[in-house]
Amino acid sequence: MHLFDSIIDKYIKYIGIIVLGIVTENGYITGLGVDDWKEVSLINQIRNKFNIPCILENDLNPIALGYFKTNIECNNMIYLLFTDLSVRGGIVINGKVYQGNKGYAGEVGVLPINDTYLNE
Q1: How far apart are CA 61 and CA 111, in angstroms?
Q2: Which InterPro entries did the record assign (predicted)?
Q3: Which run of H or E residues covers position 66?
Q4: HSE of 9, CA atoms in CB hemisphere, 13 A
């Protein structure tokens, strides 16, 4: 048995992973450009390999939730991040992360603008 596997078996009870991309029920969608996005079933691979609960979350949602939890004056919020590569956000409504119907909530970079996208 590999050292990492023995550490997981003995000490780790849950795995939480934050990814850049849209989190779906089976994994996440990745890619910098809208045309080259693909779904990766990372969460199922981890659950099957280690047989422990695993949470996969979009990178901005935990940041938005953490900010919300430390700022009691706000009830709802949208956290936006502008970088050279993309525009992303996390949404908190009544103290809970809002992911939307298909996990696209907060993915403002894929909003169409004329014949391109905001990320462009």
Answers
A1: 18
A2: ATPase_NBD (IPR043129), ROK (IPR000600)
A3: helix 60-70
A4: 7
